[in-house]
Amino acid sequence: MKKKKLNLRVLLTYGILAAVCVLVFVLIETGVASRQFKSLVVPLCVNMMLALSLNLIVGFLGELTLGHAGFMSVGAYAGCLLSVYLEGTMPMALRLPLVMLFGGLVAALFGLVIGIPVLRLKGDYLAIVTLAFGEIIRSIILNLDFTGGAAGINNVPRDIYRGSNYLIAFVLVFITLIVITNLVYSKQGRAITAIRDNRIAAESIGINITYYKLLAFVIAAFFAGVAGVLYGHNIGQLDANKFDYNRSIEILVIVVLGGMGSIPGSLIAAGLITVIPEVLRTFSDYRLLVYAIVLIAVMIINASPRMQALRARFSVRRLWKLIRGRRRKKEA
Amino acid sequence: MKKAICMLLVCALLSLCLVGCGNDGNSDYTLVIGGIGPTTGVAATYGTAVKNGAQLAVNEINAAGGINGMQIKYLFEDDQHNPETAVNAYNTLMDKGMQILMGTVTSKPCIAVAEVAREDNIFQITPSGSAVDCIKYDNAFRICFNDPDQGTASAQYIKQQNLAQKIAIIYDKSDVYSTGITEKFEAKAGELGLNIVAKEAFTSSSATDFSAQLQNIKNADADLVFLPIYYEAAAYILTQSKSAGLETKFFGCDGLDGVIDQLGEQNAAAAEGVMLLTPFVATAEDAKTKKFSQDYKAAYGEMPNQFAADAYDAIYTIKAACEKANVKGDMSVSDICNALKAAMLQIEIDGLTGKMTWSANGEPNKEPKAMKIVNGIYEAM
Amino acid sequence: MEKTQEQTPMLKVENLGISFGGLQAVDSFNIEVQKGQLYGLIGPNGAGKTTVFNLLTGVYKPTTGRILLDGEDLTGRSTTYIGRHGIARTFQNIRLFKNMSVLDNVKVGFEHQYPYTVAEGLLRLPRYYRQEKKMVEHGMELLEVFGLQDEASYLAANLPYGQQRKLEICRALATRPKLLLLDEPAAGMNPNETAELMDTILFVREHFQMTILLIEHDMHLVSGICEQLTVLNFGTVLAQGETARVLKNPDVITAYLGE
Amino acid sequence: MSFISNLIGGLSLGSIYALIALGYTMVYGIAKMLNFAHGDIIMVGAFTIFTAASSLGGNPFVAILCGLVTCVILGVLTEKIAYKPLRGSSPLAVLITAIGVSYFLQSVALLIFGSTQRPFPKLFSLSPIRIGKDLVIKGESIVTLGVTLVIMAGIMLLINKTKIGKAMLAVSEDKGAAQLMGVNVNRTISITFAIGSALAAVAGLFYGLTYNFIGPYTGSMPGIKAFVAAVFGGIGSIPGAMIGGILLGVIENLSKGYISTELSDGIVFAVLILVLLIKPTGLLGKKIAEKV
């Protein structure tokens, strides 16, 4: 009974996302969509991947990190440098998966190396330490020669921007979504959620806290890295300053806005946060002001206890039950 | 169910920007020039200056009858100094029928946009994107100097005038402009036998307190500090060096222009004696600069900086090139670009930032002027 | 007496002690619990009962003494290790995984019994389905024992108090422990519920052949089901032995009623 | 000599961090929320003083008073409008609204004052102290350090010795229980925000005096650094925030002076990580043993 319901929810998420992807594809390929619309597609996918992966840490593991952009940058630099190196030696269809995997693995390795010492910390202390690691990574990238310093890398092949290659981004979002969903609804995912709900109880039934925390951290870092590689191959350049703590906070905004521990929530919020600032271009100078107000308003509407109670009263599910109840009465 | 509604909402928003950007069709009598730059975020000063400087030029040209009889429609989009946003801004402008691109203001976004602009073969002229890669394609030109040239020129000038024996550098490690100049400056200085005794860095996240850097320079006993940075950070350095009792000469590049206004009356003493190589100073006495500065101040309440001047010149350069190439309203974006590319090599502009001609690589040929701040105003050296 | 000599006791604790910054919370604590026994640990508030549990489960590391479970030395092991190697517990203040379903709470307890790798889980390989199916079956079996099968899909937080207690025991049993520690299982229950709980505990012992050590204040429960008792006072053992005899011990009565 | 000079530079930088961190900790420790907009309230305070000083005839005390009043009103209003509706939901939700408030204040300042940095009025003329030939201590730094110490002592007295302070402690422990004990939780939190924002105004004043220039984004970087300092010192600990701030400044300056100005950002954070790995609850934070 329960199992079916769960599968239905997951399938619904997959289905709606697939439908949206098809719709976007049709709009772009038939030329109905504007260029602005098209240029938003890949950044949106990048944000979705980042939000899904951060949600694993913040939503499911229940730990606050402010260094997600650091993993993104490590993955981006690793993958994009390899891509620059390999360009011309092999077809794109081979090179892209290879460099994405590489970027993801390097980021995951960083996640492991950083995770081992810092995951002993909790709460805001962990948040600060991850923020610190993100900034250290940025500082190091700025000081290394092969990363180009402040000038960054400017010759990353812009494969994803060209033609219909944005479809690759769709595929990546789906892979991220499926992996994260599968993880969450597995033994390992349950252990991770159990740690969030009650660490002490989880420990007492033999769950290895460090292992599962690291697992969540490493998988999240992996996808952040892949998202970074995707970002680099869309924009064609990397700049260490674009992966600072502000970027980490932006991802966190998406996760919290969508609801911690809600996978479809992350997807929807990524959409909102990517699209709203562009839609608000009509406000020109007042763009960011309006954005700030929208952010605060959405947050209050979405998360305040009073609004939640109100929503529960008027929820679609409740209405549906009411209608069904009446019908049943009539039949009786 | 709630999810479905939310997803629909996102779709609705997406389609809103789908519908919102139709072309208004009849562009026979207008020439659409698009501008891109940061008007919000930490680099907002530069973008705003460019936006305003160009607007002044557009107003003047439109009042005088436009370009080849066409009025200019000038559109400006914010990029928050972010390459991704800059590409979005570019595409938004393309949706709105942009025919010529004046931008972008900052280097990294400019490089990203240059890639896309090349694919569209749209004519691009950046007022202030100074990294070499900003104009690596043949459809792109620039008004400002590029970073390496400034570094080389500065070292040469210091050597020629024999300004210093021991040179210290303070540069912004996180900024392309600053690292670009510094790199070439060091190379040239080495070549010329100038002695660099200290090289101190800061980053965008520590750009207000310079006590340690200044102390290091003091320890190194430098007699000139080279500042390949923008005037905001320079203002901090100059005021703090005064209170730290550091008595060296200061030498900067075009980014330093604007430092007098930044310092304001109360800190004016800190700017005394600062030297810079720049194509433009807002307080210059020639009629053109005077009028520009007055108009700018009247319209926007503050003195223009070099960015505003570059943008002003960029618009007039577009005008001159369009007239030379006899650009017509019914020409396609790509045709305009091809015509302008040829015309750019033939025109000569006597702008706010000096007399300019262009070579095929898109770089302007113009002479920087060496200036020194004396009694609160610039004096030619 | 002969019995203890011929088989190793399930739990044997020797000279266990811990001090927190000079305060000796538990001192030279000895206990022997035989297989299948129902053993009670009682004492006034602050006597150090829960501290003993925390020592047994590795939450605190003892400063002196040894802990032997079925002959295996567990002294100084991590909580995770101990949880995996035979001691399961419940908590005084219920600690469920509140935002997970009832069934999932139990499934988390199966951590080491139905293993599959991360890759098998992510790729949904056959073993994932096989093991998950077994977990559901086994989990539902366990829930049925406690009459929780109809609530399997509820969030644990939404269960009434009494059922939360049961679920906690259920989750502890899911780890297939050799020894079950119950920390004040009857706290906050009315007499009817307590009576029901006593039946449940006895049933658990029968059904799973479980050795149980429990902390309790409710003397009715203690005298009703515990075979052996240890009384703690100020961190030291005040009395030990058969329930009826211990409860008659004048020292114990003084400790409980005051002088 | 240059060591002492660097140390003094670090102290002066650190005392600014400490001053900001005190206001941060106030709200952080009692309302249990990360007020990411604190840095921007500092910016608003500085701009208010700037505007008041240039339009109200330049009386410094009137200008400072204006700054204080504006910040207090702003702080209490943002709490009522943006944070209070979210009380009871996850602390992260409030963090996100605080980020929204931060964007909001920055955009408003950008629209009013433009993006160009403004020279902050020299409200007082403080002459630097010279010791020997090379040692110069800025007057502003000494005053900042002094004011920070006084404020720290003041807050500690307020919290430990007064009725409202007790109420604050109660609210920080458990809002529900405090309510039951007759503490007016809303009022207490409002007062906390009022004091925190007043401190932000003071920080804005000294920031302006020390660094001479203010802009719409002036507050964000010091805000983050102060957050780091507050956690470094131990969450909720008032002297911890003070020490955390000062140490952060000193470490930053010494690493610039003796290791590398190019890597200093990284070094500061590396030291921070090291300290937190050794002391996982900050320098003066209480180690909260979880009761099992």
Give average pLDDT of chain D, whole number. Answer: 89
**How much strand content do the residues of chain D show?**
under 5%
Spans of chain C of at least 5 consecutive residues whose pLDDT stays below 50 are none
The coarse silhouette of chain D is globular
Evaluate the radius of gyration of chain C. Answer: 19 Å
Q: What structural class results from the helix and strand content of chain C?
A: alpha/beta
How large, in whole angstroms, is the Cα Rg of chain D? 19 Å
Shape of chain C: globular
Could you give the order of the helices and strands of chain C?
Answer: HEEEHEEHEHHHHEHEHEEHH
Please give the domain count of chain D: 1
* Euclidean distance between termini CA atoms of chain C: 34 Å
Span from first to last CA of chain D? 54 Å
Describe this structure as you would to a colleague.
The complex is a heterotetramer of chains A (332), B (381), C (259) and D (292). Chain A is an all-alpha fold and 332 residues long. Chain A has one domain (2-331): ABC transporter involved in vitamin B12 uptake, BtuC (Orthogonal Bundle), CATH 1.10.3470. Chain A has helices at residues 2-29, 35-61, 68-86, 92-118, 123-143, 166-184, 187-197, 199-204, 209-235, 245-258, 263-279, 287-303, 305-313, 316-331. The longest helix of chain A has 28 residues, at 2-29. The mean pLDDT of chain A is 90. Chain B has 381 residues and is α/β, with parallel strands linked by helices. Chain B has 2 domains: 22-145 and 287-365, Rossmann fold (3-Layer(aba) Sandwich); 148-278, Response regulator (Rossmann fold, 3-Layer(aba) Sandwich). In chain B, a hairpin with a 2-residue loop joins β11 (349-351) and β12 (354-358). Chain B starts with a helix and ends with a strand. Chain D has helices at 2-30, 38-55, 60-83, 91-113, 139-161, 163-173, 175-180, 185-211, 220-233, 238-258, 264-278; strands at residues 118-119, 129-131, 135-137, 213-214. In chain D, the strands form 2 sheets. Chain D has a two-stranded antiparallel ribbon with strand order 1-4. In chain D, strands 2-3 form a two-stranded antiparallel ribbon. Chains in contact: A-B, A-C, A-D, B-D. Chains A and B meet through α1, α2, α5, α9 and α11 of A and α1, α3, α4 and α6 of B.
Short summary:
The complex is a heterotetramer of chains A (332), B (381), C (259) and D (292). Chain A has 14 helices and no strands.
